[in-house]
Write a structure and sequence with these properties.
heterodimer, A: globular, B: mainly alpha, 1 helix, rod-shaped
Chain lengths: ~350, ~55
């Protein structure tokens, strides 16, 4: 046995023609595997679950979900939830939301939570565009909940374009490219070849996703990634930064509403698709500590007025769910189960009312 | 009369264990090279995963 191990080690440690040949063949095979894996048909199938490089890779999760929706649309009413990590932490569970909707509407729904950290409006356009496919879109009713928040740090054109250039999502959209052009920039190149069209995304994910695929070990990405059990003490909360983001958003809020307006216009071509705006809120302690209650209320009033002007619904779910001040992990993310339950219930209540008006309830 | 020189002794055929070692080296090298290539291209393009509030 020792002799066998010594021989093996000798072969393993020394360079040889055989190992060089095998290395070359494996290099080609793995490269081929990578090109095969990073293609839409594969990523939208069961192997797409290997795309997430870590359990915090919400962008890969959202990418996988919309590709799934495009390739195999559900045969029941559908709810898409878009927004930032604040919305993710509030709704927290697709299954939980589906159960709540079943209780409220008596129908089985398919819920897809497509939230990503600091999700920009361009991300939202992209995810919705991919999930729905070309107009007239799906026959099933699709309800899209878009988060509204005073905290829109992606609000400036510069920041919006900066986030877009990062290629955080592994999908592309003509709608988003159009907005990029309107902002005076050139969209990233498009191609029928997935790795070329999503070059940055593939490079960032490539190594780790492939390794997970080869080891058969997918990352499980929870929707509510923020919020360990114990809340962050006030001195560790970066309130100044959050406040700066809110005030920064004030200057350029027209961009937010312009893009939302464009989204609603585009969706007019989809007879069964409805958009509603759902408001998230920062913790009451944040408002008190920074004196920003008025700023938040003003942002909410603008969202409400936008919804009224565009004939869409506005749901202040955090206020309706009576979210407790202790529910927050930091000033943004909800971490307690009862508060999440109440938020899902508030959402489901609105949806039940809405589907009844459609004659489905 | 000179006798022809005796043929050189043949190198002993590598054992199965040695071949397995060589193949293992090749498989690991080839696979890891692709993973390294991705990292290298990402580094050279100054691409880093998006991080927001530690995520």
């Amino acid at each position: 046995m020792i002799h066998w191990a010594r021989e093996f080690a000798d072969g393993f440690l020394r360079p040889s023609r055989l190992s060089a040949g095998v290395a070359l063949a494996c290099f080609g095979l793995t490269l081929g595997l990578a090109l095969w894996f990073f293609s839409e048909p594969v990523l939208s199938g069961p192997l797409g679950r290997f795309l997430a490089k870590s359990d915090r890779d919400a962008e890969a999760r959202a990418t996988y979900r919309v590709l799934q929706l495009r390739s195999a649309p559900p045969d029941r009413p559908e709810l898409l939830v878009l927004g930032s990590s604040a919305m993710a932490n509030a709704v927290a569970s697709e299954r939980g939301m589906e159960n709540e909707l079943y209780q409220s509407t008596g129908r089985r729904w398919s819920v897809s939570i497509l939230t990503t950290p600091a999700q920009s409006l361009l991300d939202q356009l992209t995810l919705i565009d991919v999930a729905l496919g070309p107009a007239p879109g799906p026959r099933r009713p699709v309800l899209i909940v878009v988060e509204m928040s005073a905290l829109r740090e992606e609000g400036t054109a510069r920041r919006t374009l900066e986030l877009e250039r990062m290629g955080r999502l592994g999908v592309r959209s003509d709608w988003a490219d159009q907005v990029v052009r309107e902002l005076g920039a050139t969209p990233r190149p498009r191609s029928v070849f997935y790795p070329a069209e999503n070059y940055d995304f593939v490079l960032i994910h490539g190594g780790k996703s492939l390794l997970r695929l080869l080891l058969g070990s997918p990352a499980r990405v929870p929707i509510a990634v923020y919020g360990p059990p114990s809340p962050l003490p006030p001195e560790k909360r970066d309130r100044r930064k959050i406040l700066a983001e809110i005030t920064g958003g004030r200057v350029t809020r027209t961009l937010t509403f312009r893009v939302l307006d464009q989204l609603l216009r585009r969706l007019r071509a989809y007879p069964n698709v409805h958009v509603v705006l759902a408001q998230t809120r920062l913790s009451p302690q944040f408002g008190l500590a920074t004196g920003s209650e008025d700023l938040q209320s003003a942002a909410e009033a603008r969202a409400q007025s936008f919804a009224a002007d565009h004939g869409t619904e506005y749901w202040p779910v955090f206020t309706e769910a009576n979210v407790s001040p202790d529910a927050f992990y930091d000033d943004i993310h909800i971490a307690t189960a009862p508060d999440r339950d109440r938020i899902r219930k508030a959402l489901a209540g609105h949806i039940a009312r809405l589907v009844k008006s459609w004659g489905l309830g | 009369m000179n006798n022809p020189p005796p043929p050189p002794p043949e190198a002993p055929a590598p054992s199965l264990a040695r071949r397995l070692g060589q193949i293992t080296q090749g498989v690991l090298l080839g696979t890891l090279l692709v993973l390294a290539l991705f990292e290298l291209l990402a580094q050279s393009g100054n691409l880093t995963p998006f991080k927001y509030q530690g995520f």
